[in-house]
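call fold target=DNA (cytosine-5-)-methyltransferase
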Amino acid sequence: MTPSADYRVYFYPLKEKSFLVHIIINFLEDNEDITYKELIRKIEAATPPQDYEDDIEVTEEAVRLHAEFILEQIASYDESADDVDKLSRTDCIQHLIVLSGKIIPEKKRMQSTSRSTSTNVQPKQTMQQKKFQDKRMKKKTQKECNTKLVNRIFDSIFQDYVCCLEDVNNRENSDFECEIDEIEQFEHDFYEKELKINYFDDFSSTKLEVSFNNVIECRNEVSLFENFKIHGEVFKVGDCIYIDSQSAFHLGKIISIRHDKIENKGGLHVVYFISASDTILGKAASENEYFLSNYCQTIGFKSIKCKSDIVFKPQLSNWKSIGGEDLEEKSINNAGRRFYYSKFHDQKTCRFEDIPEAFNNLDADSCPICEIKNRETQGTISLPRYTLNEEIELNLKLYNSVKWNNIEYKIKDSVFLLSSAFGFDAVPRSLPTRENFREVDEDKYPEYYRKAKSKESLSTCEPYRIGEIVAIYTLRKEVGVRIRKFYRPENTHLGKQATYAADFNLLYMSNEETNVNISAIVSKCKVTYCRTPSKIELTYDQQHFYYNQTYDARSEELTRSETHDEEVDEEPAETLPLATLDLFCGCGGLSEGLVQSGAAKSCWAVDEDLVAAASFKKNHPDCVVYGYSCSTYLSMLMDPDCELNLPAKGEVEFLCGGPPCQGFTGLNKFKDRLCAKLKNSLITTQLSICDWLRPRFFLMENVQNFIRCNDSMVLKSTLRCLIAIGYQCTFGLLQAGNYGVPQRRRRVFILAAAPGEKLPQFPLPTHVFNSHSTNSITIDGIQMIPRHNWPTLAPYRNVTVRDTLSDLPDIEDTEPNESQEYNAHIQSHYQKILRKNNNTGLIRDHFYKRMNAITTERILRIPRTHGADWRDLPNIEIKLSDGTWTKKLEYNHDDVRNGRSRNGSRRGICRCAEGGRKSGVNCNIYRQKGTLIPWFLVHTANDNNQWNGALGRLCLDDVFPIALTKLTISGKIGRVIHPEENRILSVRECARVQGFPDSYIFCGDIHDRHKQIGNAVPPLLARAIGSEIRKCI
C-alpha cells in the first residue's frame, strides 16, 4: 500500500512505530532476559517489509523517539498477561524507561496493578499471547539431554541447559560380564596394588651404591643394562619414577640404562609425563590423569627420588559396545592421589594419541621420542659417501643425491622452493595500479575522506617456485643444487592476465638455470609432460603439475616441448568409505566434501530445519534424513522402544557435524542471550551421540570464537570429554581460503579417532591466501599449530572473484528464472571443478534478492573500481524509480574527531559528533531520512572502522568476504555488490563462493537458500580434511 503525497508524512511514521512494536514484543516474548543493547541490535538487524521506507530498520534513535508509543503498546499487551510474565517488568524495557524519560501510562499501570491483586478474575488471552507464553514456559524448562559422562564434564558450564538422560537399554549378560571383569582388573591395579616406595635423600652427602644387572648390549665401552639397583632397590627399563628437578618433582618413564666404563659414569634416558592440568585441558582436566609427553632427557642416578605409583589405564576390549556408561567417574572418585595415564600428548600440535607401539617394546638403544624428533627436525643434511666428480682446485664436489630434512633428492627430481629462491628473466606486464584514494570534490562526495582512515589488508604471498634438479654439489662446505626453472603463467611477460584462463597446475619448461642453497628446497612435487591436460586430476588433492610447452623469455614465445613419455595420474588405492552420520547437517556442505574425498558415504543425517533437510535429501538421495532436533534424535537412539529405523551401535563409522554457532560467532549480536547459550549446549548433544554410538572417527566444526568461549572452557571440556570416552583427539584452526575456497572463512575443527585407529593429520594448505592470517593458536600461554612444520606458502595461487563468476550470465531485471544457460565456456580451473558433474548444461538458482528504490539507486551510484563502497556516494537529490526524491544529507555540526573538510565545511550530522557518542545527546532528533548517503552509516562510522566495505562492490582480482546467511549490504560484511553488474550477489554466486558444485540443488525460498549456504561448511575445505581421514582408513 502506497500513500499519497499528502498522507505520506503521517503514514510512514505510523508504520515505523507499529513495525518497532511488532519486533520488540515478538522478541521479548522469546527472550525476556535480554539486555537493552541486545534489543537495539535486533532492531537494527531486522528487515522491514518491502513497502516500508528504506531507513526504517535503523535505529536506536527511533526507539527513543517513539518510546512513549512503544510503552503504551507494551502496557496494553501486558493487560492480559500473568503478573510474572509482564514485558514491562523486563530489564530492557525498564532501561528504555530510564533512557527516554517516559513512563507507562498511569491508567494502564493502575489497571495492571488492580488485576494483579485480584484472585477471582483471570485476564483473557488472545491465541497469539497464549502461544507465546506456552513457548516461553517450554524454553524455560527445556534442557538438552546427554549421556552420563558428557553431562558430568559439561555440568559446570551449561548446568542450567543440560541434564543426564538415563540409559534405558538392557545390555546382554555376556557383554556386561566382560566389562565387569576388565574394570575390576584395572581397579585392582589402580587402588589395591601396594608399592614399596623408598626415598633416597641427601644425594650430595651420601655415596650412591649403584649396581647393574643383565647387560643387553655393549657398544664403544658403553654398556646398556636391563636393570640396576640403588641401595638394594631394583629399577628396570619401563619403570616409572619421580625425578627431582631443583624444587619440583616430575614423573618419568625409564627408556634405557647405560654406563660408560671409560668415564665411569652412568645415567638413565627418560621420557617425561605431563599432568593433564598442564596441557590445554587446564581446569577441565582430571586431577589424577597424566599423559606421556614428547620430551625426553638423559639424567643422572642422583636425580631419582623414588618409584612412581602411576599406572597405565588400558582400553576395554568391549569399548564399542558400552557407549553411554561413565566408567571414569568411579576412577575419579576413588583414586585419591594415585595417578594414571592412557594417552601420548604432543603439546605443540595439541594431539592426544594412543601410546606409540614402540613404548610397549622398548629397544635397548632406541628412544621413540628421539626418533620422532629426528624425523621432524629441520635443517639436517646427509650426502652420499661417493662423489660423481671432484674439482680439487675449486673445492667442488658433485653428487647424484642428497638427503635434506629426511627426504632424499636426486637429479631430475621436481621440487618446491621458497618464493625468494630465484627470480625470472621475463618482466611481467603490470596491471593498472589500484587507486585507493584520490582527490575529489568534497562538497559532492563528503564521506570520501574516510577511505584514508579505514584499514583493509588482503595481500597474498606468491606460491612456491618450482624447479627441476640438474646438479647437486658442495662448494666450500656449503651444499647447493642447480635448478632448471619452471614458469607459471603469471611469471611470463603476460603477467597476471595470463592466469585468468590457465589451470592452477599449468607450468612452462624453460632453459633458465640457477644455483640455490639446499635450504631453499621445501619438498618434492610431481611435474609431468602431458599433451592432454584433461587426464590430470582437476582437484587440488594430488598437487600434480603438468607442462607441454617451453617458454623463452628473450623472444617472449611459447614453443612445443620436446616429446616425452606422457605420464598420467595413477589410480588411488581403493578404500571403502565410512558409513557416516551427519548431525546438524543443514544443506550438506560438510557431507558433500567428505563424500568427494572418498572418505565417507552419507548414510544418515539429522536436522530439525525441514527445508535444509530437504536440500540434503535432494543431493544425497540414498541417505536417510531425519527431520528432528539432534536432542530428540539422541533420546530416540537411547530408547529401546523406539520404532524408527535408527543406526545401532557399531553401524556408524564416522560421526560429523557442526553444532549451531550463534553463541560463538562474532557476527551474532545476540550471542549472550538464553537461546544462544542453549544452542551452545548442543555441542554436548553431538558428544553424547558420539559417546553412545562410538564411531571410528569423529569430526566437529565451529566458528573461530569457539576457541575463546568461556575462557576456552568449552573447547577444553570438549577435548576432555573425548579423551574420557577413550578417543584420540586434536583440534586446529583452518582458513578456507588456503584450500581453494575464494573467501575469508576461518573455522575450528576437532578431529577424533577411536582407540587403535590412526588419528588423522590436518591437511597442508594447497593455496596461498592472506599473508597476515595465521593458523597458530595461543591458549593459556601455550601456542599450538595444526601440524609440525606448518608452511607459510602453498603450491597454488589464491582463487579470485574473477575465477568464480566470469562464466555466469548477466541477470536482467525481470522475474527470476530457476535455470539459465551459462554465459560462456569454462574460463578458469575453479569453474572446471564446480561444473564437472553438471550434466544439464544449465545453471540453477541464479537470481538475487530485490531491493527497494533507494537501495537500488545507491547500488547504481557505487563505482566499478577497487574498494568502492558507501563512501563513494554523492550527496545529491535525485528522483527514484518509485517517483520519490532523495534528500541531501545536511552537515550542521562540527566533528571533533574528523575536523573540517579542505574547503572548511563541517563533517558532523549530529550534535554527538561535537562531544563524542558518550556525551548523552539524544541523537534521534537529529536523524535524517531518505538521503542517498545513509545517515546511520555516517553517524556510527568513527566507531566501526569507517564502515569499510558497507554498500561495497567486489573487485575481480580480490577474494570474497565471508559468506553470510543473510546478504546485508549495509552490515559489517557489506561488500556483496557484483563487480560489474548493479545488483547484489545471486544465490548461485554465493554457492560458488562456498565451493558448492553447480549441480547442487537448494530448496526453499531465496531467504532459505541464502541461510543454508551461509551456514554450510565449504565442501572444498571438507574435502581436504576428508582426504587426510582417508589416509587413516
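return ok
The chain has 25 helices and 38 strands. The longest strand covers residues 248-260.
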